[in-house]
Amino acid sequence: MRIGELAVKAGVSVRALRYYEEQGLLGAARTPSGQRTYPDGAVDRVVLVQQLYAAGLSSRRILELLPCVYTSYATPQTLALLASERDRIDAQITGLAATRDRLDAVIAAATASVTDGCAPNHYPES
Amino acid sequence: MRIGELAVKAGVSVRALRYYEEQGLLGAARTPSGQRTYPDGAVDRVVLVQQLYAAGLSSRRILELLPCVYTSYATPQTLALLASERDRIDAQITGLAATRDRLDAVIAAATASVTDGCAPNHYPES
DNA sequence: CTAAAACCTGACGCTGACGTCAGAGGCAAG
DNA sequence: CTTGCCTCTGACGTCAGCGTCAGGTTTTAG
């Protein structure tokens, strides 16, 4: 598979894939002419990288954790890193849930004020 | 309250507070000599802003939503914005939970491989 | 064979939420 | 009065994850 196809299948840009390689996150074989070639498994790997990025991990951290995700083997240090990232994500979830609940309360209050007409509705009805 | 005290109480930097003012998120009265003065309520406001930043909202979006958080009144457009941000946060929570679960699985597998000695433990015991 | 599409390597641009430095003015304490 | 801390206004620096453009090669479709 070449880079364009991988980009489509993984839902990222070609530029992103080259960036991942630059960061050591995604290896690529090369054809004699220098074009990158990826195995099918690369799709899952890219998706995983995206998932970790979305969770707020940096390239460097992902680079440290990726091997042990695939080998299920980690040094105590890496294990500690894993646990710390897990806890961070957990805390982030808790915070986000609180924010969501707060927004829900605001939405409920604002909706009520609209339906009850207890606020001046000078906004356009169109 | 002056800016330094507010910064400490809200747990942010002085620079951040000036930035919030620049973005229109935080008003400030001025002493005749030009120093910013904040009421006690500013602490909560700053904390709220921080919470929204942490949820991935931009300054612009926060600026649009802050008034209706305090007035509990919103135009339909603003209400739609609120709902869309809420849903985005909800989706983010779902994704983060999946990532956390994946990390949990990795941690479990790696811990097992260590305790079972089923992997070469050539890492330093110190 | 040829034109279009895909790929290559640099390398600069972008964005947002601040950090940081410079130079100058205020403010309570001794 | 002056010492030392707080504050002020610019204004440039940072960092990460790419976007984008330039100029050239490779692969593919017809």
TrEMBL record, chains A, B:
Pfam families: MerR_1. This is MerR family transcriptional regulator. GO terms for molecular function: DNA binding; DNA-binding transcription factor activity. Keywords: DNA-binding. InterPro entries: DNA-bd_dom_put_sf (IPR009061), MerR-type_HTH_dom (IPR000551), MerR_fam (IPR047057). Residues 1-68 form the HTH merR-type domain. PANTHER family: MERR FAMILY REGULATORY PROTEIN, REDOX-CYCLING DRUG-SENSING TRANSCRIPTIONAL ACTIVATOR SOXR. The keyword DNA-binding applies.
